[in-house]
Amino acid sequence: MVSLNIPLSKHPLAEYIYRLESGEAMLHDSPDNVLEVVGILKSYGVVLDAYSRNLIYIADHQFLVLFPFFKYFNGEVSFKKLLRYWWHDRINFEYAEYCMRAMLWHGGGGLDNYVDSPEFKAIAEKVISAKLKGNFVMLSLHRLFPEFLPEQIRQLCYYSALGQFWRVMSDMFIELSDRYDRKEITSIPQVVQHIQDGLVAAANQPITYQVTINGQVYEIIPPSVGLTFLMDTAVPYVEAVFFRGTPFPGTVSYNAQAAQIPFEQSDFIYGALYADPLPIGGAGIPPTLLMQDMRHFLPPYLHDIYRRGRREEDDLRVQICQSFQKSMFCVTTAAIRGLAPHPLDTSDPEQQRANRTYLENWMNRFIPSRLVDVNRG
After folding, report:
1. I need a surface site. Which of 88, 149, 253, 277 has the fewest CB within 10 A?
2. Cβ-based neighbours of 260, under 8 Å, separated by 6 or more
3. Cβ-contact 296, 16 below 8 angstroms
4. Which of 298, 274, 277 has the alpha carbon at shortest distance from 288?
């Protein structure tokens, strides 16, 4: 327990501030929570592996293909696979694209600044000219609508960047499960520390993007731009997917007169940390796709717990969503600790005050979240 030389907090979520200051996580530590979090992150890691590979495939091999009918096939098209896809016996890559578009729309970080820069526009024009060489119809379209194709390239940058981000996270979660199996992970603080260590280790990993056209390589996000894993993908991802998200069709009215959607994007609270698990399974709810994917890769020990529930597997997606939210509060704890202005175990009063202000600002965002609910369960 850190000795604090500052007054007690008056924040309504002060309990969780003290937990973070004392080295604990926002999710209470218990054997059941450890099992749930590690188990669901194992499943999530397998799904993220598939999502990552597909996003990077689309960015690299479906470049400026306006009608990419087989973009989810990763270059392996067969009649048997087509039948499986028609039967919906596949990974729901649409959810990966939902997250990508949320990041693109909400912006933030160096990637958002770069794709609006003159440097990017010059590179985009060069690549468009190479890709459309001899295609007079498309070149004419580009002259008529000069922002259409550059916008497609902006989106492809996010395909690649999110794919690279999820590559790191997938490996991190699989390793977490392996360490749990070896009895190296036995508590929620250890789970958080594992994630934090992984984020720190990958923090400066460069985010780049290049495509090959007619045998020539074009650097769309060159290393010289200086984009990195943590500040330019991880932080914007947490902001866009964990916090803001987008309104789910069918749950709120998009009619401006109804005023059911905040006017400012910064006020959105449709992310994973706020979502009510009960609608999971309904049409038009994007996380349903993720929960459906994760159900195929649940570790036996976690699947058995779900089967012993009151409804057994009738509400499996809801149970998965509840476990997933617990895990995301662990990931968010790791991010908060890693981004703190000073080490949270500091004994310097000035640094403690700065950390307290930092944590209270975070807790303001958690007031309408499901933080209290996941700790009750």
Report:
1. 88
2. 247, 252, 253
3. no
4. 277
What angle (nearest 5°) sits at the alpha carbon of residue 331, between those of residues 325 and 335? Answer: 140
Q: Exposed, middle or buried by CB within 10 Å (0-12, 13-18, 19+), for 206?
A: middle
CB–CB of 131/64 below 8 Å?
A: yes
Instruction: For 344-375, write each residue's pLDDT tens digit.
Output: 988 899 999 999 999 999 999 999 999 999 99
Contact (CB, 8 A) for 11 and 266: no
- The DSSP element (H or E) to which 219 belongs, if any, is strand 216-221
* Its pTM surpasses 0.90: yes
**What's the half-sphere exposure (Cβ side, CA atoms, 13 Å) at 280?**
27
b/e map 233-261, b = 16+ CB within 10 Å: bbbbbbbbbbbbbbebeeeeeeeeeeeeb
183 to each of 21, 30, 186, 334, 366, how far by Cα in Å?
Answer: 26, 15, 6, 21, 32
Q: Which residues pair with 211 in a beta bridge?
A: 218
Structure tokens at 263: 């006017």
Structure tokens at 282: 């309904």
The tens digit of pLDDT for each residue in 80-94 reads: 989 988 888 889 999
Q: Determine contact, residues 228/205, Cβ cutoff 8 Å.
A: yes
CA 49, CA 3: separation in Å to the nearest integer?
42
CA dist 285 and 269 (Å) reads 15
Nearby residues of 335 by Cβ (< 8 Å), 6 or more positions away? 199, 234, 235, 238
3 state DSSP class of 49? helix
Spatial distance between the Cα atoms of 148 and 363, rounded to a whole number of angstroms:
40
